[in-house]
Write a structure and sequence with these properties.
With 262 residues, the chain is α/β, with parallel strands linked by helices. It folds into two domains: 128 residues, D-Maltodextrin-Binding Protein, domain 2; 94 residues, D-Maltodextrin-Binding Protein, domain 2. It is built from ten helices and twelve strands.
């Protein structure tokens, strides 16, 4: 009888935990956000011009303003959770943040856990080296070279596919320091990130030697089975596009419109 009782109690506990987990998975995230009046957004805060701190210490940037505009569309405040890139999706998985808005790109691995909004940018990749580097002029020249990359980024994956040995970095500034000190031979990243750095550091002895034929797009990730939240994000982005707000934010931070596929 004792064994039967213990088995019954165990089954009840398993079923209860399963019900709790299913309830959490099925919870309407949009309703939760609107009830709380706050959308928590994960972002780096060190990736100019998308997400960084200005001279006054305020968090600013293209993705920061996009996030705030989405929050305004949802009728909620936006609270930012700043962390290194590698930690942002872990924070989303644990429920600490509602989404990550930080030049997030699509990958098959991410698609197993998240759904994605419609694209809101179309950006070419670029290959950058030191100003006196004549050995690397094409992406194929990365074979056997050291590329300063975020190890979990799509740009790092692409550099590795070209045969590069990856050197781990967490920011564009750190990347440039490694190239300047000859601890890395090159780096592959979004053209907008390099353009912003070179605009703010005209003395930097670096150059872009190649650009990708394709473009990559920024997307807003949403946990699976959250159609209401995903639809609301898409509606916000479309409203921003039609009003010209998205283009204006792009030109403010990038000096060009990267929000149109044309």
């Amino acid at each position: 009888m004792k064994k039967l009782l213990l088995l019954t109690l165990s089954l009840v506990m398993i079923l209860s935990l399963s019900a709790c987990n299913n309830s959490s998975d099925d919870e309407d995230q949009l309703a939760k956000i609107q009830d709380a009046g706050v959308m928590v957004v994960g972002t780096e805060g060190t990736y100019s011009p998308n997400s960084y701190h200005d001279d006054n210490g305020d968090l600013v940037g293209f993705d920061v303003e996009v996030a705030k505009a989405i929050g305004e569309h949802l009728g909620v405040e936006v609270e930012f959770f700043e962390a290194e890139w590698d930690s942002l999706f872990a924070a989303m998985d644990s429920g600490r943040v509602d989404t990550v808005i930080n030049e997030v790109e699509y990958s098959e691995e991410r698609a197993l856990k998240y759904d994605f909004s419609e694209p809101y940018t179309y950006v070419h990749g670029a290959l950058l080296v030191a100003g006196d580097n004549e050995d690397i002029t094409t992406f194929e020249d990365l074979d056997g070279k050291r590329a300063a990359q975020n190890l979990t980024s799509s740009w790092g994956t692409l550099a590795q596919e070209y045969g590069a040995e990856l050197v781990s970095v967490d920011s564009v500034n750190q990347t440039m320091e490694l190239i300047a000190s000859d601890r890395a031979d090159a780096t592959l990243n979004a053209e907008t990130a390099f353009g912003d750095y070179m605009k703010n550091h005209p003395e930097a002895d670096v150059k872009i030697v190649a650009r990708t034929d394709f473009t990559t797009s920024s997307l807003v990730p949403v946990r699976k089975n959250q159609e209401n939240f995903l639809n609301a994000v898409n509606e916000a982005l479309e409203e921003m596009r039609e009003s010209g707000e998205l283009k204006a934010i792009s030109e403010k931070y990038f000096g060009m419109d990267v929000t149109s596929e044309e």
